[in-house]
Amino acid sequence: MIKNCFTNFIKVVKVLHDTIIWLQVSKDVTICGQDYYVGCVYLPPVSSNYYKMYECDIFYELINCVEKYSTESSKVFLLGDMNARTAIGNDFIKHDSLYGSIFDDFNHIFNYMSDNNLPVRRNPDQGTNEYGTKLLNLCRSTGLRIVNGRHKDGTANDFTFVVRMSGMSVV
């Protein structure tokens, strides 16, 4: 799963149910001098038999891990298929910039960066679902951001799921 040249720098720290694998990337190979925690995620659709096999809320388990690893490092990443349809919902709190001298006086304490300069996220899928709402809430509460559809030139990604009878979506 991990290339030989990286085995000394990347380790599996947790496997949840068989749908989430957490990796720790050593600060020895990162540019910021901190460990990175990477969650490799597959969340089965809520209506699927695969989801029903689990006797827990897998998304809740994901949230707990994000919280845990965020206390150990400010560098937490999620990637994979979360079956989360978010349309163009905000993954950040609008108008959240600290104002003038308040920012200058307290930014060293909070190390807070406003989302004012973040490229607009474009998404051709205007549908939402339960996981999408949960993902947007997770992003707003933790500072994680959705990268899909954020391009400097303002273009959108294409649909990632296309089935003639079921429709199309970006998940």
From TrEMBL:
InterPro entries per record: Endo/exonu/phosph_ase_sf
Record's protein name: Endonuclease/exonuclease/phosphatase domain-containing protein
Organism: Mytilus edulis (Blue mussel)
Lineage top rank: taxon: Eukaryota
